[in-house]
Amino acid sequence: MSQRTAKITFSDSDQTIELPVLEGTLGNDVIDIRTLGNHGYFTFDPGFIATASCASSITYIDGEAGLLYYRGYPIEQLAQHSDFMEVAYLLLRGELPTAQQKAEFVATVRHHTMLHDQMATFYRGFRRDAHPMAVMVSMVGAMSAFYHDSSNPFDPEQRDVAAFRLLAKVPTIAAWSYKYNQGQPFMYPQNRLGYTENFLYMMFATPCEAYEPNPILARALDRILILHADHEQNASTSTVRVAGSSGANPFACIAAGIASLWGPLHGGANEAVLKMLEDIGDVSRIGEVIARAKDKASGFRLMGFGHRVYKNMDPRAAIMRQTCYEVLDELGLHDDPLFRIALKLEEIALQDDYFIQKRLYPNVDFYSGIVLRALGIPTSMFTAIFALARTAGWVAQWHEMVSAEGHKIARPRQLYTGPTRRDYVPIELR
Ligand code: CMC
């Protein structure tokens, strides 16, 4: 079969440019515009609304149908039957592990959980009230100053060690940012515990009392980690790819991803949702909040609603809503006021013309904050937990990029709108 092509014609000339059309295994075909520059044109797409920045075989989203697959496996099946370590393996290696492969993977992650002890001294340089994400950006970036033997992205073995170190140490870094915040001693990882239990242990144990993580709550947190593990070319993942495309240190690249994730339009949304629900305070005020979200002049958006890709229900939101019921049940919090406000807010928004026409549905963050809060996680740690989960995706995407054939540094073009050439004017003549 001959290669499909697309033709660009111009309204002011007879010029025609023919470009190849590439097909993926699922989803939209893409027009390969790489040779467009030879004809004197670039494309203009700020915010990457219609631009595929890479080819990837990791995650697939169908925003119209509300589908999310990791390596072909639907998120619903992974959330129900898998666990975060297995999902991390799947994202990184491309296939589900055998029992032996999984045991080896988990054991390797487990033996990398401790931080270089000198890194503990860094925490003391921060103010106690520093946001955990500020601490995480710095601490993950600081890993690049400690782990020199896993910093060459073009060496497959070093890449693998970097991936293990990141998966294993980011939970320790996150939990310790909370401990420092609280003025409590750092709790060293307990390698008898599973990945998620260990994180809960480092967050909530103290040297004074025995602490055993509740397995049902640990399972709920593990599910949150699965749901947040990857989401194809979102802002933070693209940031990791762009940073890593220059051959930069892997730990510095993940720190760049954490910085991008921090924003309220991305990973910061779960924290913003909870603040919004607390501000609403009562179901009687929902109408007022919906009206404000519809009024552009207010600058206010309904947090946890809308998505660049999902124009239907975010499949992660449906799983999260169900998890919310389960966790609140387990804790005897059926009447949690914030959950009641969230359910009512969702119900009203989904019947509102503004939200229907703009195809704004709840996203994963709409319910994840309520679950995290029920688990006793403070609001300031929500985005840090998102970062912990997304580390699996960032590392897999970074791996894929640096090992790809024909790897190129990311270097976008621009539409220049500044002054044309002009001559320097000496200061006394201005
Ligand atoms: N509340 C009210 N109006 C909204 C909202 C909202 N949450 N989201 C989008 N709109 C409106 C927006 O004003 C715009 O209206 P118009 O066409 O009249 O200018 C239209 O819907 C399209 O919005 P957009 O900002 O052009 O869409 P986008 O694809 O650039 O942004 C988004 C997507 C997620 C940033 C946006 O929906 C948003 O700000 N949502 C709230 C923040 C949020 O929940 N973020 C978490 C995203 S999911 C987690 C993750 O993947 O990081």
Mean pLDDT: 94
Instruction: Write out the strand line-up for the largest beta sheet, numbering strands in chain order.
Output: 1-2-3
Distinct small molecules bound, one entry per kind: carboxymethyl coenzyme *A
Distance between the termini: 65 Å
The helix/strand order is: EEEEEEHHHHHHHHHHHHHHHHH
Percent strand? 5-15%
- Write down how many β-strands occur, each being a DSSP E stretch of 2 or more residues: 6
Gyration radius, rounded = 23 Å
Task: Give a written overview of the molecule.
The chain is mainly alpha-helical. Helices cover 48% and strands 6% of the residues. It has helices at 75-81, 84-93, 99-110, 119-123, 132-142, 156-182, 195-204, 215-228, 235-244, 250-261, 269-280, 286-294, 315-330, 337-350, 353-357, 365-374, 382-403; strands at 5-9, 16-22, 30-31, 59-62, 67-70, 73-74. The strands form two sheets. Strands 1-2-3 form a three-stranded antiparallel beta sheet, with no helix packed on it. Strands 4-5-6 form a three-stranded antiparallel beta sheet. β1 and β2 form a beta hairpin. α5 (132-142) runs antiparallel to α6 (156-182) and α10 packs across α17 (382-403). The radius of gyration is 23 Å and the shape is globular. The model has no long low-confidence stretch (mean pLDDT 94). The structure holds carboxymethyl coenzyme *A.
